[in-house]
Amino acid sequence: MQTHTFKPDMPPPNQSIGAVAWLRGNLFSGWFNSLLTLFALYLVWLIVPPLISWAFINADWVGTTRADCTSEGACWVFIQQRFGQFMYGFYPSELRWRVDLTVILAIVGAVPLFIDAMPRKARYGIGFLVVYPLLAYWLLHGGFLGLETVETSQWGGLTLTLVIAAVGIAGALPLGIMLALGRRSEMPAIRVLCVTFIEFWRGVPLITVLFMSSVMLPLFLPEGMNFDKLVRALIGVILFQSAYVAEVVRGGLQAIPKGQYEAASAMGLGYWRMMGLVILPQALKLVIPGIVNTFIALFKDTSLVIIIGLFDLLNSIKQATTDPAWLGMATEGYVFAALVFWIFCFGMSRYSMHLERKLDTGHKR
Amino acid sequence: MKMAKSALAVFTTAAVLGVSSFAQAGATLDAVQKKGFVQCGISDGLPGFSYADDKGNYMGLDVDVCRAVAAALFGDATKVKYSPLTAKERFTALQSGEVDVLSRNTTWTSSRDAGLGLNFAGVNYYDGQGFLVNKKLGVTTAKDLDGATVCIQAGTTTELNLSDYFRANNLKFTPITYDTSDESAKSLESGRCDVLTSDQSQLYAQRIKLGAPDEYVVLPEVISKEPLGPVVRQGDDEWFNIVRWSLFAMVNAEELGITSSNVEEKSKSTGNPDVARLLGSEGQYGNDLKLPPDWAVQIVKQVGNYGESFDRNVGAGSELKIERGLNALWNNGGLQYAPPVR
Amino acid sequence: MQNAANVPRRRGSVLTDPKLRALIFQLVAIAAVVGLGWFLFDNTQTNLEQRGINSGFAFLNNTAGFGIAQHLIDYTQTDSYGRVFFVGLLNTLLVSVIGIILATMIGFLLGVARLSPNWLVRQLATVYIETFRNIPPLLQILFWYFAVMLSLPGPRQSLGVLDSFYLNSRGLYMPSPGLSETFGLFFAALLLAIIASVLLGRWAKKRREATGQPFPLLISVIALLLVVPGLAVLIAGNPLVWTIPELKGFNFRGGWVLIPELMALTLALSIYTAAFIAEIVRAGIQSVNHGQTEAAHSLGLPAGKTLRLVIIPQALRVIIPPLTSQYLNLAKNSSLAAGIGYPDMVSLFAGTVLNQTGQAIEVIAITMSVYLAISISISMFMNWYNGRIALIER
Predict the structure, then answer these.
(1) CA-CA distances (angstroms) from residue B175 to B168, B180, B194, C51, C81?
(2) CB contact, 8 Å: A192 with chain C?
(3) Which of A83, A141, A254, C201 has its CA at a distance of 20 to 30 angstroms from the CA of residue A229?
(4) Is B93 exposed, middle or buried, given 0-12, 13-18 or 19+ CB atoms closer than 10 A?
(5) Residue A143 touches chain B, beta carbons under 8 Å
(6) pLDDT 10s digits, B218-274
């Protein structure tokens, strides 16, 4: 009997695999597409080579003064020389280890929270979030338990940016959650109050809020009550941000099916227990990516404290560019500031996307 | 909920942070004595008047007024905390009690004295508004400036003087208004504006900040009177007197030939009665001001007399090299004149 | 186990009656808010009196006495603070409107580019979005102003095009049109063409409904609008007189000028906002089920019409609400003008005027209410529009 043997498969035609096919499919699939590709290539050619030559090839990396910058490209010596000021502001240089330690503690302390297998994660988290702020305050500000006081007016640079962002979000979260609950409350007066509050803060620019907190707040308070400038700015940031957090949380609350509320009521839970044990844990989990996005917005907004004369990262850099010894370094300064902000914001947005995928509990069709 | 609790903790911290800097603003003197330092509003960076080195130490002619007040009160010129303020913020910061004294090249005008609820304690620098231009423009007098673009700092009297001057001389101009003097200097340098206008002292200060100071020239015209001095809130006369007489003590010391190097010695001898009264070895003039008897000694010892302060910060001993001019003592052809201590 | 007998007694208790409790809770909340308001108001009142600070809105009638770089309405230094307010308001609105238009155009283009079949275009769009949306807008404004605009050459070395457009560190100068005698004829011709287009449009629609025949309406209308006024120009001559900017003294005189502060601000804001709009557009287009495209194709619609008649109308429903909040953000971010000296509402009114008058509370209150009014009107307009295009379930 004759057995039928299959011929081995022919390789796919040259046209549909490999680099050529990829190019055809993705770049030159029609005359319009080819034109677009050429245009895009032209754009890349226009932007990338000069940028690389400015930032790397023709740049100066070593030296101590402006005179060391001899080539046409960027003068990174400036950034290198002023790096300490950009990171710590006017924080006394012999005490800068305290800032470093604060940051290291934050990283070390937070690591277990990101390990999935960690037991009793929630309890640890709460403990960390209660202890850490006190520790950070003690380390940064000092004034008791043997540490020398460092006035907030000496804080600056990236340190101040991080402090404003961290305190801002930590303060805005609880307030925002309360506001979101209030907005969905069944009591009309509470609802009206919360809606007014939220819409007010969302309607005005942060600049005017900061300006108000910086120069007008003392006029509103009784005589003798006077807060630190940084604290006043923080209050402004917290109030402003809480309105945005409230809207994000409201989205989460609305996404919880009515059955959950009814089930919780049927179990005999009161309002606070229903919210605390059933609704909020689910709602907050849903909106974590949204909260991270709000935090990114807040992080970018911290740069506005320049308007009220606090020396955050951007203001420290701006200040340094006016130093007669380093004139004409504005571009390098701004590029460095942009890079730092970008790294933080991009990192957080990637994390938020990752969370979104991880927390997606399979409602996808 | 864990987020909420953590935030609560931060809130408490923030409150502690706030409480630690609580201050009584009622009677300024009491409050200042209780907290142990003078909160002083200064400029956000003006070489010669108030500026910080890269370690954050403040110095300058305006800063010296604050230091003098602290020296008189506490016998320690370092007991000052500085709040750098923009031109925009300064009055509200003083009115609201955020600062105890504002020493920030502020022009004394009637509306500020009366309408803003402020009191000017004296004049530590007699100034006038001038123009800084690039030599390349070939302008020699302000009358040539028709159609020019002018950079100014927002919220200053210069903004108003400029308009008045151009209107009076029938000239046209375009103002570009910035928040800080650094921005206007940068703008002048880039050619965004033809002229930078400000108090002359500031023009000299800004000129040295430019990349090529020699390419710029200050025009001869002075278009306004700008008496600059420290400011306090109205209705607090004790405090007002202390600031005013701290300034006068510096001027009197110069007139009497007392300097930081010979003050110790002069305070012991009782030769000249004027010197003795000022330095507290005769009479109880410090007491009337609610100050310790050696108040003026401390000022001169730690800050110097007016002439020393001027030289060190803006005069011959500094990069600015501004002539004494109007700011010389009255018996030297200038306007600096202080009432006697007696 | 609860004792059943307890239930009626507990229900009668004041503290456990939910309605009563809610009422008490609300009263307490209102009292607290009113109390806080009164506390602040009273303090402010006392503080103002004690410190001898002027109050009230009378200052709005006082003479301002300073010049302003850009004013859309007539303004001289003898005008009042009230007029300064309107100058600032119009400048803010100008930035917002130009910014919104530019941002929308760039954003839509990028959003579509993100979905392009072309790999390179897709990547470029992604790089743009990820770069610009992660850098603070203030930093971008400062960069455009101090690093780009101010490093342009001075007026005497301007970059000129056609001897009528000039770009230098003072701004972009361009010819400005004025009316000549023949403008009347031109205007009449234009009006005629518009009326004819409208009539044509009606007729074409009727014909399509009656016979199903499409009519090349767009091309006809464009032709109509070009040919009729064009003929008028040919017959009667140029209807507009152009004033060309010339270098005189320090500056260019004549023509229109876009000041660099305005350019830097609108560029930075629209580039920043466009990155967000692009993501919104992409998400909107992706939210339309692929079945819709297939259905449209199987009905025989070409790609362009599929996009225009099927995809975009559906995508818009998803796009509009987040787009609104981006527009609001742009309007609020225009207040960052204070960083570069553009005379907007905040830097002019809440800056210069506040300082000259010292009446912080009144000035900030006015400024904040203006922004509130702007946000409320944008969101009301967008809500109306959203309601109009919302899916009507039949």
Answers:
(1) 16, 15, 10, 33, 17
(2) no
(3) A83
(4) buried
(5) yes
(6) 888 888 888 999 999 888 888 999 999 999 999 999 999 999 999 888 888 777 888
Hey, is the C-beta of C343 within 8 angstroms of any chain A C-beta? no
Residue A140 to residue A153: CA distance in whole angstroms: 12
CA end-to-end span of chain C: 53
Contacts of C134 in chain A (CB under 8 A): 296, 300, 341-342, 345-346, 349
Rounded to whole angstroms, how far apart are CA atoms C231 and B289?
89
Task: Please spell the DSSP secondary structure of A72-103, one letter per residue.
Answer: SS-BTHHHHHHHHHHHHBTS-GGGHHHHHHHH
Residues of A in contact with B233 (CB under 8 A): none
Rounded alpha-carbon distances, angstroms, from residue C210 to B168, C204, C358: 74, 10, 70
Fill in the amino acid letter for A58: N
3-class DSSP assignment, residue B173? strand
Quick check: B89 and A234 CB within 8 A? Answer: no
* C-beta separation of C253 from C245 below 8 A: yes
Residues of C with Cβ-Cβ distance to B194 under 8 angstroms: 250
Q: What is the spatial distance between Cα B229 and Cα B223, in angstroms, rounded to a whole number?
A: 19
Terminal alpha carbon distance of chain A: 53
Contact A204 C368 (CB under 8 A): yes
Q: Residue B232 has what pLDDT?
A: 93
Q: What is the pTM of this model?
A: 0.82
Q: Per residue in B143-173, pLDDT tens?
A: 888 888 898 887 677 888 888 888 888 888 8
Please say whether the structural domain B128-225 has been given the CATH code 3.40.630.30: no
Interface check C151 vs B, CB under 8 A: yes
Which residues of B fall within a CB distance of 8 Å from A327?
Answer: 210-211
Please report the ipTM that was assigned to this predicted complex.
0.84
The secondary element (H helix, E strand) that includes residue B77 is none
Instruction: Output DSSP code: residue A241.
Output: H
